[in-house]
Here is the input.
Amino acid sequence: MPLTPTEKIWMDGKLVDWHEAKIHVLTHSLHYGLGVFEGIRAYPTSAGPGVFRLSAHIHRLFQGAHILGLTIPYTEDELIAAVKEVVRESGLEACYIRPLVYLGYGEMGLNPMPCPVNVAVACWPWGAYLGDDGIANGIRLKVSSWARHDPRALPTAAKGTGMYVNSSLAKVEAVRAGYDEALLLTTDGHISEGTGENCFVVRRGRLLTPPPSSVGALEGITADTVTVIARDLGYEVVEAPLRRTDLFMADEAFLTGTAAEVVPIASVDDRVVGTGKPGPITTAIQEVFFKAVRGEVPEYKDWVEHVT
Here is the structure.
């Protein structure tokens, strides 16, 4: 989706004009891909814009930086305040927010340790990542020919910038073949995740999802949100190894992610999942989720952090 510029971007403690938020061509992370980022959403609420699970996202950003050996020169509270400032400056009721930690200009070569650590926070309007029709009616999913990278090769618990080459290859392959999204398997054929989403399968009233630590999937904050909602609705949620045939035989299935939100899967590799329409469990979870992000569910009100 094309970017719509907003007024300001936060860069290393200062707000700069959108079109002046620039870096040098020899910035280390541009060459070697070492950095971490987050995707966060703000939604309209009765009390103005509310950032959904902001503290959890910023904490994961710091965890990812720690895994990659990067020391962020700010505290979690300072970056939470930076996010709120950027959203406030934008004047937007709803937006997508991108905090980014990267290695800056000054050193070149594979040893990143002498490089400065820079931080930026931007936001912009962004609708449903997989489309409003996908949210309402489900998406067509393709199992990618690209395997998810092995946790022994890259630390998949970190939301690392360079790791998303893997996701981009899978996404392009799926879109060129006429699908909406790709699903990546591990090298031994277990379901890992989508290009930027966790996967849930519904079978016999239970929700099944792959254990992130063993399949190279990111521990999703939206996946955690959905797990809490599903259990509060009375459904059992179990982490279990899954193969693509579990999707073929599912009663329902859906993807979760900050950008994608909660998206039903209509088909996988041209096999219809369930009825090919959003099932009752998926629909029930979607209904609560989209109320929760707008601060309309009292028991989940602490998930929404207001910017004013």
